[in-house]
Write a structure and sequence with these properties.
Elements: E1 2-5, H1 12-21, E2 26-29, H2 32-37, E3 40-43, H3 49-58, H4 61-70, E4 75-78, H5 80-83, E5 88-89, E6 95-96, E7 104-107, E8 116-121, E9 123-124, E10 140-145, E11 147-150, E12 157-162, E13 166-173, E14 176-179, H6 187-201
Parallel strand pairs: 1-2, 1-3, 3-4, 4-14, 5-7
Antiparallel strand pairs: 5-6, 7-11, 8-10, 9-12, 12-13, 13-14
Length: 202
């Protein structure tokens, strides 16, 4: 069972629908026992970094997530969920994140239209399980975001896209995986990525 962390983020139904279509058992929850007994966690996200961290802290979910990750439990962060893995964000004022990965979240450069919304091409590194059976070229996924991860550890970046700057799109450090785009909205490629996550850890 995958525990989808419930902290009031929207657009969960499409994620749950896609996981169910892939026969991946899942439950939307903030129940500590269920999260600790789960095989893996997904941290979804739509909205503000600052608001999300406040909600996680209010329900003590930040502590539970960090403890479970430290114990080796896999976690997948999607969109804002991935951004919350990092140390700090300047969205809505400087806010401290979960600190699972090194880096800072900042606004996409004004040289391009913000938000970054729609399909964009992934530039993938080879040799990672999370991108198994994903074409190295002409691979498109669906983005909706105004902020991105900057000053990250280069070895954590599995895939990126170009949008005003080089935007980390898939990151991984051990059992921590993040996707800046929405795999549940990214057609066949997104479904394969979610299937890969399942096969890596479940």
């Amino acid at each position: 069972m995958i525990a989808i962390i419930d902290y009031g983020a929207g657009n969960i139904k499409s994620l749950q629908f896609t996981l169910s279509k892939l026969n991946i058992p899942n439950i939307l929850t903030q129940d500590e026992t269920i999260i600790r007994n789960s095989k893996a966690m997904i941290l979804p996200g739509v909205g503000s970094f600052q608001d999300a961290m406040e909600e996680l802290k209010k329900a003590n979910l930040d502590t539970i997530i960090k403890q479970e990750v430290e114990n080796g439990k896999p976690i997948l962060g999607i969109c804002l969920g991935m951004q919350l893995f990092y140390e700090t964000s300047n969205e809505g004022g400087n806010t401290v994140g979960l600190g699972l990965l090194k880096g800072h979240i900042e606004r996409i450069p004004t040289s391009v239209k913000v938000p970054h919304m729609g399909w964009n091409t992934l530039h993938l590194k080879q040799g990672y399980e999370i991108t198994s059976n994903i074409p190295v070229e002409d691979t498109y996924v669906y983005f909706v975001h105004s902020y991105y991860a900057n000053k990250v550890e280069e070895e954590d970046v599995v895939g990126s896209c170009t949008y005003g700057d080089e935007v980390p799109a898939i990151v991984q450090r051990d059992n921590i995986i993040g996707m800046q785009f929405h795999p549940e909205k990214s057609s066949v490629i997104g479904m394969q990525l979610l299937k890969n996550f399942k096969e890596m850890f479940l």
